[in-house]
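User: I'm writing a tutorial on reading structure tokens. Could you give me a worked example: one chain, its sequence, then its tokens, then a sentence or two explaining what the tokens reveal?
Assistant: Sure. Here is the example chain.
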Amino acid sequence: MSGPDSPPASVADFLEGGHIAVLSIPAAVAGEAPLATPLWYSFDREVSEFTVVTPRSSRKMAYLAAGRAVSLCVVGGEANQDFVAIRGKVVVAEPISHAERVAFVRRYRGDDAERFVSESSFDDADMAAVRVRADRWRFRVR
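And here are its predicted structure tokens:
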């Protein structure tokens, strides 16, 4: 199924699981391949927005400008047969506090989130939360 509207509840429920997403960003320079990178994400079903956290000094951040079109794909379920793929636009990239970063990481690391963030090679001041609003959906979630 595909479409521009918000996904059905079953898709939003799937997205709230602890899956890994692959974010694809068009090349910044003609002739380069798109940048595709696996990452953690969160999903806000109220506004159909995904949030990813990345270092401001990263190559992907250099490609992520407000209004930039990107794709994001999440695969999971039994034998990884379920998927959600979206096309969307970057809404904003903004600083993220240590507490917000720990809350984001907790989805994947549980009680270990504080230690994980504290021992990260990236300083809180270098991190940014990037929000992407979906405008096109493709999915198969059973």
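What the tokens reveal: The first strand starts at residue 2 and ends at 3. The chain has one domain: 2-140.
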